[in-house]
């Protein structure tokens, strides 16, 4: 039996035309298809065939706009090299910024916690009441509500 190693790529979605305070709901298959189309354009059939097996979008936080993409070890380089070339998801202009590449989901979530904590520190200075701060902290730091499968159920 052969064990396949995976890499988890943590990506930030930057949407210039959508305000930061508005949540951005994204279906996983749309994100996956967009990335695979770009890999096809940049790396051709070989890159697409190498990446396609084991490729999936695992997590998306609609408040902080962070997603985790899983790819097999080795072909993950095709994914990371293609991400900066993505300029649109659907009809929206978008910039994908690679934040972190890790070997396990656990390390990805640890990185996201640190990243989201720093995000909260910058946004908290703009909020006036403790209730607003607690509501924002719950929305940003709760990983179960922002699972990508739940986002699909809300939109579908």
From TrEMBL:
Main location as per UniProt: nucleus
Highest taxon above the source species: Eukaryota
Gene Ontology terms describing biological process: rRNA processing; tRNA 5'-leader removal
SUPFAM superfamilies documented for this protein: Rnp2-like
Name of this protein: Ribonuclease P/MRP protein subunit POP5
UniProt KW Plastid keyword: no
GO (cellular component) term, any one: nucleolus
InterPro entries in the cross-refs: Pop5/Rpp14/Rnp2-like (IPR002759), RNase_P/MRP_POP5 (IPR016819), Rnp2-like_sf (IPR038085)
Coiled coil location: none
Organism: Euphydryas editha (Edith's checkerspot)
Function, in words: Component of ribonuclease P, a protein complex that generates mature tRNA molecules by cleaving their 5'-ends.
UniProt record similarity statement: Belongs to the eukaryotic/archaeal RNase P protein component 2 family.
